[in-house]
Amino acid sequence: MKKRFSLTTVGVLFLVALFLGMQFNSLISGDNIFLQLEKFKDVLSHAEKYYVDDVDTPKLVESAIVGMLNQLDPHSIYIPASQLPKINEDFQGSFEGIGVQYLVNNDTLLVDFPVPGGPSEALGIMAGDKILKINDTSAIGIKQEDVPKKLRGPKGTHVKVSILRTGEKNLIDFDIIRDKIPLYSIDVSMMLNNEVGYVSINRFSGTTHDEFVKAVQTLREKGMKRLILDLRGNPGGYLDQAFKMANELLPGGRKIVYTKGRRPEFNEEYTSTGDGKLTDVPLIVLVNVQAASASEIVSGAIQDWDRGLIVGETTFGKGLVQRQYDLSDKSAFRLTIARYYTPSGRLIQRPYGKDTEAYRKAAFERDETEGENVEHKEEVKDSTRPVFKTASGRTVYGGGGITPDYIVKSEKYSSLFIQIWAKGVFREFSLHYRDDHGKELREKYEKDLSKFQHQFVVTDDMMREFESIIKKKSISIDTSQQYEKDKSAIRARVKGEIGRALWGNDGFFVTMAPEDVQLQKALTLFPEAQKIAGLH
């Protein structure tokens, strides 16, 4: 009995000691955080009391938060209270206001185009209208960032705008009742020919999946049998929207993406449900270096399951999962809690160091070789790029980002072309042209964009007028051999911007489609896309 009692006592004492040790470690950890907070408080307090000049304490605290998050990774960030509403709005999919896309050109507030279904469109406000007064106060000289303060407001409230319209002598007054305005994440959906549908998505907001389903349903009614999904320039957004979109494209039971974090509650796996409506449609996905995060989830899943072809340039490589935490002063911060992996196990995130600028630049400085990357390609002899296999055994590479099956570089513009673009010459010319000829062009082409694409010609007289704007911007082209080389691309862009000025994004995309080398290459690749997907 004595021996048994001793062993029992020893066991109990051992468990108590273990428990106390765990609590002690926890206390040490807690004390460590407390000590660091005390240290920060002491520095802040001394600066506030003794620094030689007056101290902006909130600014110091914000700078400290920014510096702390910068030490973690490039995507853990602080969001000031002033910026949070706009950032949240961009991804929630709506705002409340009068419903116009606008721009400020030469001190004048212009209606770029009314948002379809919004209150401004319902009242007959048109693209090209100049807003000269808001609530009887002059809007001449208004700054771009001040426009939302004047035009946006709670649903049901009124705002009066006075508009000058080309061809009308007097101002037209509109009393607009603000309403909820959708922010569309689909730039354009259209038929490229009798069989191929095209959908371009600019971000993954709260309404993206619903928009996508509606768009492809309309395209199917127009005869769509094949689909090009354009994710170029799409920086990502909500994970659930990426999952829902991939779910529309993949058969049931296919892993779409999974996450791994330090804490097990952040480990998640997303698998297709089998109720997708586009699982048998031949598919090509366009990507480029600006495609990131949710765009890489969709394209990675499509590639790993051989569901379609990926065409374009290697994506950015942003595979860190952030969770947003709101702070008491209505600011917030996003903290990385996990990493994204494609179905084959590829980590989407590129390697990064402490130099955030170098990390971002590296994505845009890749030296990629154009051409087929699907079959019979000699494996990359680069130990830094791990090899993975798709469902059918095709080789794909890790190391960050999604490398396309066919690498097709986007057109590289000259520095002169970029300068003309950056100075707003294309936009300014198209707005002037719309003012002078918009009515006759709308009557001639109505909304037959194919007719506009094939029949409208940018004349030499138009180019001379365009060149006069270039010279006003102090850009020298008189003796420029580069300008002569760029003329064909400039004419195409002028035509595209006129199309945009008249009919919004649809007018631009239809007009520029023949000049899009990545898109034109994609159109030739559907036989290969059908082959790897097992579609006939």
Structural notes for this entry:
The chain is an alpha+beta fold and 536 residues long. It folds into 4 domains: 31-71, no CATH class; 94-182, Roll (Pdz3 Domain), CATH 2.30.42.10; 186-328 and 336-409, 2-enoyl-CoA Hydratase, Chain A, domain 1 (Alpha-Beta Complex); 415-503, no CATH class. Helix content is 41%, strand content 20%. Strand 17 (320-326) and strand 18 (332-341) form a beta hairpin. The chain is globular and about 75 Å long. The termini are far apart.
Shape: globular
Ends distance: 81 Å
Radius of gyration: 28 Å
Structural class: alpha+beta
CATH architectural name of the largest domain: Alpha-Beta Complex
The protein's oligomeric status is single chain
Give the total of beta strands: 22
CATH class of the largest domain: Alpha Beta
Give the rounded overall mean pLDDT: 88
Which parts are unreliable, with pLDDT below 50 for 5 consecutive residues or more? 1-5, 7-16, 375-381
Largest sheet: 7 strands, mixed
CATH topology of the largest domain, what is it called? 2-enoyl-CoA Hydratase, Chain A, domain 1
